[in-house]
Design goal:
With 107 residues, the chain is mainly alpha-helical. It has a single domain, classed as High potential iron-sulphur protein (High-Potential Iron-Sulfur Protein, Chain A, Irregular), CATH 4.10.490. The protein has 2 helices and 2 strands. The chain has a two-stranded antiparallel sheet. The model has no long low-confidence stretch (mean pLDDT 82).
Length: 107
């Protein structure tokens, strides 16, 4: 990732965190959250897609074929749900079959 992309990610992350902190007393349920779209600015910056099988394996760290949101440490929510909250895309749901460049293996 280039330094420019990293700076952009940090700015967008700070904005998302600030938005989350504006309403600390209101807890949204997962079903109330909007789904992340592939044309979302943060999603585009992090190369998010709803279908991990469409991502060029050369863009991913190893093991490329096994990477998707359902086996990422950032994914939250109930196992088995198709759309779940993600620690990276605060306030939005991601597809469990999706992928982004911030993928981290579950411990």
């Amino acid at each position: 990732m280039s330094k420019i992309a990293r700076r952009q990610f940090m700015k967008l992350s700070a904005a998302a965190a600030a938005g989350y902190l504006v309403h600390p007393g209101s807890e949204a349920q997962a079903q109330d959250l909007p789904r992340l779209t592939e044309d979302d600015p943060v999603g585009m910056a992090l190369k998010y897609t709803h279908d991990a099988s469409t991502v060029d394996p050369a863009l991913r760290l190893q093991p490329a074929a096994e990477q998707n949101c359902s086996n990422c440490a950032q994914l939250q929510g109930d196992e088995g749900d198709e759309w779940r909250p993600c620690a990276i895309f605060v306030g939005k749901l991601v597809n469990a079959n999706g992928w982004c460049s911030v993928w981290v293996p579950k411990p």
